[in-house]
Amino acid sequence: MTRLFKIITNWFKIQRLRFQMRPARLKRAIKKANRLHERDGKRYRVFFFGDRYHVWNRMEIRRRQASGLLKRSKKAGEDFDGICFHDTNANKN
Fold this sequence. Notes:
The chain has 93 residues and is α+β, with helices and mostly antiparallel strands. The chain has one domain. It has three helices and three strands.
């Protein structure tokens, strides 16, 4: 009975994650990043952490590193570019 319970629980977790990663939420986060970039000119990135999309700039990434939520050994510009869904400076030359 416990194996069946684990299978059902995992199925619900996958469905919940699929619901929270839906394209509409990603588009909303991208619009927010672009709007913030136009307003203050800073570089914003869209990440998926903690079952939701986050729009962070370099200072917010460093703040999360200082609080222990993200690894301090990672660089805000180099290492996080590989895992972001959208970067406001990606198309800039």
